[in-house]
Amino acid sequence: MPFFKHLNELSDITDITWNDRKRLGPLDKASQQIMRGKSSFTYAQKELFAAYVSGLNACSFCYGSHVAVAENFGVSPKIVEALIDDITSAPVENHEKPVFEFLKKLTLSASKLKQEDADEVFKAGWSEEDLQEVILVGCLFNFYNRLLDGHGVKGNKAIYHFGADHLHKKGYGVPWFIGLIKGLIKKSKLKKLQEFEA
Question: Is the confidence at residue 157, as pLDDT, over 80?
Answer without folding.
Answer: yes
